[in-house]
Amino acid sequence: MRLLYSPEAVADLARLRAFIAEHDPAATGRIAAELVSRIDRLCAFPAMGHGVPEAPTGDAVRDFAFGHHYVVRYSVHDAALVVLRIWHHREERATPD
């Protein structure tokens, strides 16, 4: 299964690195690497996350919580897993995605 990132998810990763660096500069690289590693594992186990009830396609859009701090929203397709958004639970989110 291919792993793809939406442009929004790529921007989210950059924003999260800055967020982590602001609060714990020493942990920035380690946490970013762990997050990407966990996302890579989703390809092997795409049903790990929980379905997003608001999604129009049932369990095709899922949320995976990493370490009780980060949430990865992704969609599952026949040949690919697409990371849609990534955020820290402390971030204020204007609208649900």
Strands, helices and their partners?
Blueprint: E1 2-5, H1 7-23, H2 28-42, E2 50-51, E3 61-66, E4 70-76, E5 80-88
Helix pairs in contact: 1-2
Describe this structure in words.
A hairpin with a 3-residue loop joins strand 4 (70-76) and strand 5. This protein has one domain (2-88): YaeB-like fold (2-Layer Sandwich). The relative contact order is 0.22. By secondary structure, it is α+β, with helices and mostly antiparallel strands. It contains two helices and five strands. The model has no long low-confidence stretch (mean pLDDT 86). It has a five-stranded mixed β-sheet. It has helices at residues 7-23, 28-42, and strands at 2-5, 50-51, 61-66, 70-76, 80-88. The longest helix has 17 residues, at 7-23.
* Rg, nearest Å: 13 Å
What structural class is derived from the secondary structure elements? alpha+beta
Return the string of H and E elements.
EHHEEEE
What does the average pLDDT come to?
Answer: 86
Classified in CATH, the superfamily is RelE-like
CATH topology: YaeB-like fold
The largest beta-sheet arranges its strands as 1-5-4-3-2
- The name of the CATH architecture is 2-Layer Sandwich
- Number of distinct helices: 2
Q: Assign an overall shape.
A: globular
The CATH class is identified as Alpha Beta
Q: Tell me what portion of residues adopts beta-strand conformation.
A: 25-35%
User: Total strand count, please?
Assistant: 5
Q: Note the quaternary state here.
A: single chain
Low-confidence stretches: none
Question: In which range does the helix fraction lie?
Answer: 25-40%
